[in-house]
Amino acid sequence: MKKIIRLLLLAYFCLFTRAQAQKTAALPTIKTFIKSSAVKHTGIFNIYLQEDKYYLELPDSLLNRDILAMIVINKGSAQVARDPRRRFGFAGDVVNEGVFKFNKNARGTIFIEQSQFYIAPEKNGNDYYQLLKDKEGVLFFTLNTVAQGEHANLIDITPALNADLPMLSLNGAKEELGLGAYQANLSKQLAITSYKNNIVFRSLRAYGAGALKPESSSAEPVEPQSRQDTQVSLETGPTAWEIGASWLLLPKKPMKQRFADKRVGYFVKPVKDYISNPLRVEEKLLATRWKMEPKPQDLEKFRRGELVEPAEQIVFYVDKNTPEYLKPYFIKGVNAWQKVFEKIGFKNAIIAKPEPTPAEDPSFAIDNINYSVISYKPSTTANAYGPMVVDPRSGQILSSHVAVFNNITDLLQRWYFVMCAANDPNARKLPLSKDIMGRLAQTVITHEVGHTLGLRHDFAGSCSYEVDSVRKRDYVAKNGFGASIMDYLRFNYVAQPEDGFTAEELFPKIGIYDEFAIAWGYKYFPKDNDAFTEAEALKNWVTQKRADPRLFYFPEGDFYDPRVQSEDMGSNAMQAGNMGIKNLKLIMKNMEEWLEDDDDQNFTMMKKMHSAIASRYNEYLAHVLKNLGGRYADQSLVAEAKPNYVPVSRSTQKEAMAFINTYYFQEPSWMFPSNITDKTQFVFDGQVSADYETFMGKIFYKFSAISKNQRIVGQTPYTVSEFFDDIYQGLFADVDNSTPISAYRKMLQRSYVNKLLTAVYNPASFEADVAILLKQQLDKVKQSCDSALPKKNDQASKDHLKAISDMIQQWKADHQTKQSS
Fold first, then answer.
1. Which intervals hold domain DUF5118 (predicted)?
2. Are residues 793 and 721 in the same domain?
3. How many domains does the chain have?
4. pLDDT at 22 over 80
5. How far apart are the first and last CA of the chain?
6. Are 6 and 147 found together in one domain?
7. CB 200: neighbour CB atoms within 10 A?
8. 383 lies in a domain?
C-alpha cells in the first residue's frame, strides 16, 4: 500500500512539474509582450506603461535586494481641522519610510516582502540565526508575472500601484495625518520618473474622513495650546494628496555600522545581534550618521593630517518658497557645522545651496531621495524639526527634510524680547528687523541640522558653566555660554546690562560637546576594522573624554536630574533665575516706553510680550523646582555596582526652596502694574492663577522623591519634615498679624491645604512617617489660622482663615468617624 501511495505521489509531482513547465513556457517573452507604443521608464527597474497598465521588469539580480521607500507629500490637502501641534501634512514632508524587497518562492511566484535586519555570523553555525533565516518574512503583495526574459520577469504592478501599500501611499502615516479609509476609486497614478539610483512613483491618494488624536508629536516644543485643544480629537473630512514614493536600491554592502554609546547622544536604529552571545539573541543599537569617508585618492593626505573633501558631501537645498531675506541665514546655519568636521579632517563636509532651477539641475525634486532640503511651511504653528531617512541595516543617513514653520518667527521674536531686551536695544524695536530675525532663524537651522547629523538633544549642555562665568564676555567668547547647540539654549538671559555684551554674544553657538559628539560619530578609521573593534576603541576614548564635565550627556527624558532641562542656563538654576528675573523686571519697568505704538490702538504687541514675560517667569520657577527631590544621574556608576544616582545636596534644595519662597510664595506684583494691564488686559486672575495653582501641586508632590532620597546611605538629606516646614514658613508664618491677606496668598494657602487633605485621605499609599507628617502639617496650619483669626481686622481675611480651619476640623471629624467604625 505504501508503495502505491509513493507511486501516486510521484506521478502527481511529475504532472504538476510538467504543468508548471508548460505554464512557464506559455508565457511570452518581454520583447514580444511589450509593444513599440508602450511608454518606457529606464532605471534601476524598467517600467512600461501599456494600455493603461504598468509593468515592471524585474531582473533576477534584483531579487532579494533591499529597497528603501521614502514617502513624500508633494501637495498637501486642505483639511476641515488640523491639530496645530501636528508637524506633518505639508508639501515636502517625509511622512514614512520602510525597506522591502522583491522575492520569488519555489513555485516561481513573485511577491513584495518586508526586509529583516540583523548582525549574523559569516558561517551558519548559530542556531538562532538559522531559525531566523528559515523564518518567512511579512508579505505585502503578490504579483502576477505576464512575460519573461532570459534573466528577468515582467510583472503587472498596476494592482500594487492602486492599492494602499506603505511603500507607495500614505498608509504608514494614517494616524499622524488623521486619514480615514483609502478610496481607490478616487486615487490614481500621475507620473513615474527614473533617476540614477532610484525611481519615483507620483500619485494622487484619496482618503475618507478620519480623526486626529490630540497627542503632541515628538517635534520641537511648540506654542502651548489651550486646555480645550487637548481634550478631544479633531474630526477631519475627506482628503486628497499628491505624493511621491521614492524607491532607492540600497547597496549590497552597507556602510560600516557604529554601535551606539549611551554616553553620547545619537539617534539609533535597533538590529538583532546573532554574534555577540551564542546563547541568546541580543540587540545592538546603531548610531545614525551620514557616510563620511575620504576619497580613495586622498587617503594618504588624510592619514598625514591634511584636510580633504569627503567622497560624499552632505548638501542641503533651501526651498524656493523660503522668504528671500531668510535664505542666506538658512545657508549660514547649515554651514556653521563645517568647522566641526574640519576638526576630524574633512573640509566642505556639509554645505547649503539655494534650490536649483530645472535648467541648473533637471534631477532636482523634493521627492527625490538624493536631495536633502530645508522647506518652509505655511503653518500658524511655531515649530521646526529635522528628521532623517536612514538605511536600517547600517544606520547610514541617506536624506533629510528639515522643516521650518512660518510662525516660528513670531515665537523667536518673543523669546528674543524677553531674554535680550534688557541688553540689546534693537530687541526693543518690534517687529524685529529682518537682520535680527534672520540671525535668530539661523540658530534654529543650526540646531535642526544637528539633528539631521544624528545628534539627539543634549539638555545637559546648558549646565556645564558657572553662572558667573557666562556673565563674562571673554569667557563666553572662548567657550560660549553652553556646551551644546543641541540643548534648547535660546539666548544668554543671565547677562546683565552692566556686563557689556554685544547682541552677537547673546546668541548660542556650536559647543564643545557638539564637537565631541561629531568626532565620535564621524571619526574615520583608515584601518579596515570591524564594527566591534571600533566600538571598543571608541568606548575607551569616550571614557577618557568624559573626565571633562562639559561632555556629560544624559537622555532628555530624565525627570529627576536637574542638569537635564530645556530652556535653562548655568550650573545653578537659582542664580540663573535671579539674573533672568532681574532682567524681566527691567523690561516690565520700561515696557510702556519701549513698546508704545500710536498706530496700534489694541496694543497687540504689548499683549504678546506681556504674556511672554509671564511664561518666561514660569520657566525660571520650573528650572528651580527640579532640584527638589532631584538626583544626579551617572551612567559610569552602573558598571561599578553602585546606585547610579546621587541626591541633590541638602544645601542646594534649601536654596531652591528659598527661591520658591521669594518668587512664588510672594506675589510677583511687579509683573502686573496698572499702567500695563490697563492696555494689555493681561491680569493674574484667570489667565495666570490656574497655572500657579497647578504649580503648587508640582511643589507639594515632591515629597515623594525627597522621601526616596532620604533612604540613600551616606547622605545628609533634605528631609520630608524639613520640606513641609519650609512650605509652611513660606505660606503661613506671617498670618499672625493684622495685615489683610492678599488674594494671591489666599489662593496659595487654599491650594496647599487642599493638597494636604487629598494626600492624607490616602495614607496607605505613603509610608507611615509621611502620613504622620501630613497630619502634623494640618494641625499646624489649623493652629495658625485659629490664632490669627481674632487679630485680623478685615472680614475677608477672617472668612478665609475660618474656612481653612473648618475644612481641617471637618477632615478630623470624618477621620475619627472612620476609625471608630
1. 28-70
2. yes
3. 3
4. no
5. 83
6. no
7. 24
8. no
Task: Provide the 3-class DSSP secondary structure of residue 414.
Answer: helix
Cell numbers for 484, please give them: 551644546
The three cell numbers of residue 342 are 574640519
pLDDT at position 78: 67
Expressed as residue numbers, the domain containing 92 is: 34-215+227-249
pLDDT at 639 over 50: no
Is residue 16 domain-shared with residue 46, that is, in the same domain?
no
Region 585-604 average pLDDT: 86
Say if CB 413 and CB 426 are below 8 A apart: no
Residue 434 has what pLDDT? 95
C-alpha 68, offset from chain centre: 23
Confidence of residue 4 (pLDDT cuts 50, 70, 90): very low
The answer to whether residues 409 and 390 touch, using CB atoms and an 8 Å cutoff, is: no
Buried b (16+ CB within 10 A) or exposed e, 268-307: bbebbbbbeeeeeeeebbbbbbbbbbbeeebeeebeeeeb
Alpha-carbon span 794 to 788, nearest angstrom: 12
Measured CA to CA, the distance from residue 730 to residue 752 in angstroms comes to 11
Nearest to 149 by CA among 62, 42, 27: 27
Domain annotation covers residue 440: no
Alpha-carbon dihedral sign for residues 748, 750, 751, 752: positive
Helix, strand or coil for residue 118? strand
Half-sphere exposure of 169 (CA within 13 A, CB side): 24
Q: What is d(CA 388, CA 402) in angstroms, rounded to the nearest whole number? A: 8
Which of the four pLDDT bands, split at 50, 70 and 90, describes residue 637?
very low
Looking at the structure, tell me whether residues 137 and 42 fall in a common domain.
yes
Q: Looking at the structure, tell me whether residues 16 and 94 fall in a common domain.
A: no
The grid coordinates of residue 245 equal 514614493
Measured in degrees and rounded to the nearest 5, phi and psi for residue 372 equal: -100, 140
Least confident stretch, 175-179, 331-335, 628-632, 812-816: 812-816
Is the residue at 122 inside a domain? yes
User: Could you give the CA distance from residue 549 to residue 138 in angstroms, rounded to a whole number?
Assistant: 47
Per-residue pLDDT tens for 26-45?
A: 889 999 999 999 999 999 99
Based on the fold, state whether residues 736 and 683 are members of the same structural domain.
yes
pLDDT at 598: 55
Give me 650's grid cell. Answer: 541638602
Residue 53 falls inside a structural domain: yes
Nearest to residue 142, comparing CAs of 103, 181, 170?
103
- DSSP for 604-621? HHHHHHHHHHHHHHHHHH
- Going by C-alpha positions, the residue among 774, 808, 800 that lies closest to residue 700 is 774
Q: Same domain, yes or no, for 86 and 187?
A: yes
Do 21 and 43 sit in the same domain of this protein? no
Left, alpha or beta for 453 (phi > 0: left; psi -120 to 50: alpha)? Answer: alpha
| pTM of the predicted protein model | 0.90
Q: For the segment 656-668, what is each residue's pLDDT rounded down to a tens digit?
A: 999 999 999 999 9
